[in-house]
User: Fold these one by one.
Assistant:
Number 1:
Amino acid sequence: MTLPAQLQNLRIPLIGSPLFIISNPDLVIAQCKAGIIGSFPALNAREKDGDPILLEAWLTRINEELDRYNQANPDTPAAPYAVNQIVHRSNTRLERDIEICVKHKVPVWITSLGARVEVNEAAHSVGGITLHDVINDRFAHKAIEKGADGLIAVAAGAGGHAGALSPLALVQEIRAWFDGPLFLSGSIATGDALLAAQAMGADGGYAGSAFIATEEANAEDRYKQMIVESGASDIVYSDLFTGVWGNYLKPSIAAAGMDPENLERSDPSKMNFGESREKPKSWKEIWGSGQGIGAVKEVVPAAKLVDRIAGEYFAAFERLSGQVARYR
Ligand SMILES: Cc1cc2nc3c(=O)[nH]c(=O)nc-3n(C[C@H](O)[C@H](O)[C@H](O)COP(=O)(O)O)c2cc1C
């Protein structure tokens, strides 16, 4: 199946994934100008009571800056941006945020934690497309039945709320029946891994944790540094902190006075993804990350990270192309 217009003409087939708190207009604009889809969760735009709606201001700025950039660079235009909606009953802002995204004609909508027909219809009403993230084949079927245009397969090793399935198994099962847009999420931090996602059958990759260690990301320097210094064995999979299984940096859990090797199980009835996520104060500095961060060696501007991934991607492509004759 041909990809929708929004997903064609990227510099490399990569989406910078939405990161709670961390993704902001600076990061999104830098990602899009560098040629990959940049995204942010709508809930990251939080105004104080009585202040103008921040999501409006963010979308106005992103649309204007990218329009200006495209006029100045007609041969190498920016990639489109995406807004992530958390479709969970605790998100009391969902309806308002959908209206704002319709008003600003958001081109790509990423939905998480729930598939709903009306969100897909809202995106389609302004020519947008929706990508729904799923951790297994059953949820993938549900999302497509509800009208999503494409899927993000969130496999084991992804940062934030992650699945438990091997990316090989997950992509294989979804591709057995779905030929629409499919992006793979989980530990993609190099161009080699991005090409591997395509070799498996996905159309592209979805990378989050590597972008935490960028200058634009809204994260504390200590968090960025911990990403730089950590590797796969520093990550623990737990449902304690949000009620949903996810991957976290062990050193941040230890710093909060807990033993990352012996974490309790959570109470799922306490799940809250609304504006006021009540958490013990000591959890504020428990930091999410996927397993792919061994590839992250320094904090750099987002454009430089995209340059590195793009360089590796094309080098990996050539390396493998050179091997085709040997196996044919
Ligand atoms: C700190 C952090 C926050 C995240 N917040 C969100 C979020 O608000 N919405 C969402 O759909 N995904 C969120 N994710 C998941 C990512 O979108 C994506 O699936 C993941 O980062 C990909 O794996 P990687 O980090 O190994 O690249 C988050 C991930 C991290 C690490």
Number 2:
Amino acid sequence: MTLKNTADRWGPVSQSLHWLIVLLITALAIIGLTMTDMSNGPSKIKIYALHKSLGLTLLVLVALRLAWRAYAGAPKPVAGTPHWQERVASLTHWALYALMFALPLSGWLFNSTAGYPLQYFGLFNLPKLAARNEELAQLSRNLHEYGFWLLLALVLAHAAAAFYHHLFQNDATLTRMLPGRRRLASAAAEPQPAPSSPASPENRNAP
Ligand code: HEM
Ligand code: HEM
């Protein structure tokens, strides 16, 4: 078994990073949206610190994920996927990566320019990205907030596309990002013999 991605499937490292990042972003979103309404006090300080440390963890994981992708490659588009869908999917994926960098960096910039300290899970301090500056703080805060809503919109479209492929196209797009479905995924990627009916549209372009 290879850890790398193959031509028709995501390997375990890319899969684990994908789903771990989904969990982390969900937690960050829930914490981020609730913490701003909390009344001042020690719990608020703790929850902000947790949000920031988890956000910094995400930054490292996204960098690792891209580095692994550069090393391990990516599967080819599922056979039969129209060219325009490949283009839209690829644009969406790169926009998601860009936002996964922009969000933690804008959070870090806001934190720095607003003059707050930054510690990683209470273990060590992180440097400021810029000196205290009210205008930059406002700008980075807006970037952080609106960037989040854009990320959410793209993620919803992305997940809807994955389910659409799975439920209506019956192809391996979703299963090849899931563990333990090797046979199903490769079966769906190959043309099936159909003795009494013409080739299905999904299989027409299969190699
Ligand atoms: C992908 C990672 C991150 C996500 C998805 C995320 C998400 C959010 C969300 C949804 C909010 C609430 C926005 C609002 O309604 O005002 C928020 C606020 C905040 N985030 Fe993040 N965040 C991330 C990373 C970070 C990082 C790394 C830091 C700091 C190092 C950070 C610092 C903050 C701060 C200080 C606020 C409060 C802003 C305010 O007081 O208005 N975030 N974040
Ligand atoms: C925070 C949420 C999510 C983010 C940020 C995200 C991000 C990404 C990115 C960037 C890729 C492209 C991988 C690459 O080419 O390197 C990808 C692939 C994929 N994602 Fe997500 N994703 C999220 C949630 C989901 C959800 C909820 C589902 C399904 C229900 C899903 C299903 C998939 C599938 C099936 C692929 C592989 C597509 C293919 O092989 O062409 N993702 N995701």
Number 3:
Amino acid sequence: MESAGNVLSAALLCCALLTRDFSRHPDSFFLNCAVGILLYNDLKGSLKRFCGWDNWPCVVETSINDKELALFGGGGFSLTPKQFDTQLFSILFNKVDLEPDSVFLKRLDDTLRLHKKFSKNSNESSAVVIQRIGDARRTGIRVAPHTCIRESIFAEPRIDHHFQHQEVQETRRSRPYRMTLVDLGCCMGTDLRKLVVDGFPVLDIMGLDIENRFFDIGRLMYNEGDTPSIKFKQTDALDPLFCERNARLESKFDFVHSANVLHLFQTEGQLAFIRSMAFLVKPGGLMWGRQVGLANGPDGAKYKHEEGKGTRFTAGEFKELILDATGWREEDIVYRSGLVAYSELRIVKPGKNWVLQWSVRVPFDKTPGARRITELVE
Ligand SMILES: C[S@@+](CC[C@H](N)C(=O)[O-])C[C@H]1O[C@@H](n2cnc3c(N)ncnc32)[C@H](O)[C@@H]1O
């Protein structure tokens, strides 16, 4: 009875929002009531049905258990009255409330696809997956409260937003030999898992990160079984002894990727990080990545040296940084870049308007750069 009351009150809330006089239109009143009940029981499905919205923020509290979710059932996610209010508020006012126990997903279907591929139980409900993402978020924040973890972005694939993604997959498919890829600063490995879902052989990719607890949190989040998994290795890309400690990885990878890491560092740190990427990549291979960037012009520049933040660069400045770091000449590399709106963020921040996507085709003779890299880290 109590839940029936909650359903009705939420439905009436929807009607009330229309602020219309229904006294002479009881049919409209009951129609709105029915829509309200549908919204309450299956918010996402109903919004898709009525408005065609597929990627609106999904807010699901992970503190409710599976049994409670099953009770409300009905195909989509079922919400408690408090959650319903949060949802409605988010949608109406375009605001996402980052509660500590909540998960916010923009790409729900793509996210669930990753779990279906890696989980030892491919038939598990979406609610169970969301609950595990919530657990990973809570634990991950305690390890390091990166924006991508606080805002649940870590659980969503993003590598396919990069202009280079499709070409990388096509190149790999077209070659008669195996090609390898490493992600530097891979966190829980979501981008790597996306590559696997899109066909990259799991044995040909590797994740590196300074924080090995993220690897375990990732394995738990994806509920991995005994099937061959992605290799992960703990390493500090800024370590002056990076080359010695990773000697076996020198020039090992056709593709060296890094996302949302460089902007954490000041310029000196970024130079060291790029040298580590250059150390890992094969001659003639590809380095590619993305991080918060700057638009050309006076507006962007003021965020460059914001207190406590890493340095941001325009596309042109970043090319110079790569040349500085590696010792390669401009005519020996192919540098491509694009500045795109940072649309994955849940909360808009003035210093994070732009993502700089970039790629560098590495020279076939990378010796001058490699020699300088070794000299510079010694
Ligand atoms: C903001 S997260 C980005 C994670 C992931 N690449 C993504 O795009 O969602 C930054 C990641 O870089 C890692 N990291 C920070 N400093 C690092 C370093 N010196 N060497 C290697 N990884 C580092 C962090 O542990 C974290 O996993």
Number 4:
Amino acid sequence: MGLIETVERQGFLTTTVEDLVKWARKSALWPMPLGISCCAIEMMAFAGPKFDVSRFGAEVFRFSPRQSDLLIVAGTVTYKMSWVVRKIYDQMPDPKWVIAMGVCTSTGGMYRSYSVVQGIDQFLPVDVYVGGCPPRPESLLKALMFIQEKIDRERAIIIDEQGETREIPKVPQPPVSIEDVVQEIVES
Ligand code: SF4
């Protein structure tokens, strides 16, 4: 009996709360676009109909840090601007992720200048660096997929009364996972 048949017949499926939360997080990332210079044009193409980031569930560009969980920094960051970038990052709720798009953002690029930050990892925790000047929209899509994989690998932890952390013991895999069901629906 196939998965869809199983769900249709039994009317439910089993999974873990952790898997459900991870699936929801990775399937609905809301980017906060920070298009500071020319890389922003490629970021716009990433969201446009040709490259269509909505295939990955991340098309809801919020332009408000309080409603976003994925910061995409696209462009040359000067020291003067870095305070603004950091403030926007701080205003985003946890959990949140950061993509450094382009060589300028990742390393300062060709701007070996006193005014340009030589990589935003000097003041932000970066999850994925995207090389290129400018990177193609496909590269940004790949970065998004890396973030989704990273979310998938995350494990919940428990912080006890003494402040010690420990991992939640792994539970046996459920007989039917949400990914399996979604995959079967997509293929049918
Ligand atoms: S990496 Fe190239 S395209 Fe991107 S902001 Fe720097 S100079 Fe512009």
